[in-house]
């Protein structure tokens, strides 16, 4: 007897028609159900007092559990996991420094950056963690619910389990709203990717609230993003990947034209990147204490010893990349028919998986370019360094990835410009795009780089409202 055919499940909408309104309502809510925005500082200070945190510098050759591999000089962990510091040789075909060698962090395993959402009093809240990272200047910042490498959540270190991981791994306990692979810093990582996830807990699920965690609205996060070094990089990148609301607003370029421009940029760059032994990279001094450039520019590789009472392991040693200066990262923008357009840059970074990603207009550490003539410095850098005060719509200093970089900070800005500064026909490698167009691209991996995602997070949470020439708010936020 023939078995009856299985009934197909009913068709469902491809997107959640109510999600955009729910996110907007959360972004408009300045205080949360559990914690007011004014009380976040006190809560963070309380979590800092609750644990012992300490970071001391130690020579690279004295790092417990780490060693320079015989033959290559690569800095590796004794388990063969976590990450390694290796050498990289790059040729990018154009620019004042079109070939170079450098140390780079290689971390082939994909980590999870996950935010858990739940509705309280009709408003979406997001479960944030007060997480200590050894590279943060102030150590403790707001991180996603889960921020863990595969080595961390598989307990290679022998420590405690990662809290709330069950919502993001395996079958999960909620509804996945976003799950996309995104790159990290292409100048310091070799082809590093993390899953950026937003998961909403089932309405009838009682989510336990552990120490060092709190529920905040998008509006609260937006207000905190106006301040220096409060919301960490991993939170910012997940926020930027939230599902984009449908938009029928126009743009200077159609989505297809913008996609074509980006495809041409990816295709035209002749980028050759090879991993090489760390011991032999040109232009770098390789010592037991530190690895640094002969001219002192760019960054150095240093070692630290960490105590952290709130982490899965209470103490460990590791290398970190330490930049030699504070960066400047800025979107220059103009409004056309009342709609803000950002001047984006198709930027080559040696560690990217696919030649270029869309970056802010300016993304540079000024000291690394000061010795060069103005024609060889990044376009628009001088404007980003000294903008007219009445044209700055947003400015804050944010830390980069504190788990791998030491005191890595950049001043993030939105700056309004005009035709004399940013022409309608931009220079090669640059193009105009609306925030909505970039939001749509963050739903795909390896299109929008991590620095641009930080600035998008500031827009999406209401940390900044872009203004037109008349001073009136225009566009999202």
TrEMBL record:
Which domain of life, per UniProt?
Bacteria
Q: Which Pfam families does the annotation name?
A: Hexose_dehydrat
What InterPro entries is this protein classified in?
Answer: EvaA-like (IPR005212), EvaA-like_sf (IPR038153)
Q: Where are the transmembrane segments?
A: none
Name the Gene3D superfamilies on file. Answer: EvaA sugar 2,3-dehydratase subunit
Every copy of the dTDP-4-dehydro-6-deoxy-alpha-D-glucopyranose 2,3-dehydratase domain together lies at 38-241, 256-459
Q: What is this protein called?
A: NDP-hexose 2,3-dehydratase family protein
**Organism expressing this protein natively:** Streptomyces cyaneofuscatus
């Amino acid at each position: 007897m023939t078995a009856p055919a299985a009934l197909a499940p009913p068709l469902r909408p491809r997107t959640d028609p109510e999600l955009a309104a729910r996110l907007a309502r959360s972004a408009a809510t300045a205080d949360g159900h559990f914690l007011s925005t004014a009380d976040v500082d006190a809560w963070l200070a309380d979590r800092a007092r609750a644990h012992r945190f300490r970071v001391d510098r130690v020579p690279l050759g004295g790092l417990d559990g780490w060693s320079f591999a015989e033959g290559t000089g690569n800095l590796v962990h004794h388990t063969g996991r976590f990450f390694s510091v290796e050498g990289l040789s790059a040729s990018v075909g154009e620019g004042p420094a079109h070939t170079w060698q450098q140390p780079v962090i290689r971390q082939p395993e994909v980590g999870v950056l996950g935010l858990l959402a739940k509705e309280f009093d009709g408003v979406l809240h997001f479960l944030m963690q007060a997480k200590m990272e050894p590279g943060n200047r102030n150590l403790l910042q707001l991180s996603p619910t889960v921020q863990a490498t595969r080595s961390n959540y598989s307990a290679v270190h022998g420590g405690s389990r990662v809290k709330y991981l069950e919502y993001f791994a395996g079958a999960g306990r909620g509804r996945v709203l976003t799950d996309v692979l995104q790159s990290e810093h292409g100048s310091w990582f070799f082809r590093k990717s993390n899953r950026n996830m937003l998961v909403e807990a089932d309405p009838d699920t009682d989510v336990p609230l552990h120490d060092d965690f709190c529920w905040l609205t998008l509006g609260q996060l937006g207000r905190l993003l106006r301040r220096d070094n409060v919301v960490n990089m991993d939170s910012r990148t997940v926020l930027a990947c939230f599902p984009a609301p449908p938009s029928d607003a126009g743009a200077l370029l159609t989505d297809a034209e913008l996609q074509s421009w980006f495809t041409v940029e990816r295709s035209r760059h002749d980028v050759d990147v090879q991993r090489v032994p760390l011991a032999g990279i040109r232009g770098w001094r390789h010592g037991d204490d530190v690895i640094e450039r002969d001219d002192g520019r760019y960054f150095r590789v240093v070692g630290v010893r960490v105590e952290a009472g709130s982490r899965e392991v209470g103490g460990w040693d590791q290398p970190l990349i330490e930049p030699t200066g504070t960066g400047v990262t800025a979107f220059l923008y103009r409004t056309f028919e009342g709609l803000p357009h950002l001047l984006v840059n198709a930027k080559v970074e040696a560690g990217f998986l696919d030649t270029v990603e869309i970056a802010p207009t300016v993304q540079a550490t000024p000291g690394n370019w000061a010795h060069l003539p103005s024609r060889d410095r990044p376009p628009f850098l001088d404007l980003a360094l000294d903008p007219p005060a009445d044209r700055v719509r947003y400015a804050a200093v944010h830390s980069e990835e504190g788990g791998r970089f030491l005191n890595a900070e950049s001043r993030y800005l939105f700056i309004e410009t005009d035709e004399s500064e940013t022409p309608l026909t931009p220079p090669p490698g640059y193009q105009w795009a609306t925030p909505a167009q970039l939001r749509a691209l963050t739903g795909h991996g390896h299109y929008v780089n991590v620095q641009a995602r930080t600035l998008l997070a500031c827009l999406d949470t209401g940390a900044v409202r872009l203004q037109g020439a008349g001073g009136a708010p225009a566009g999202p936020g």
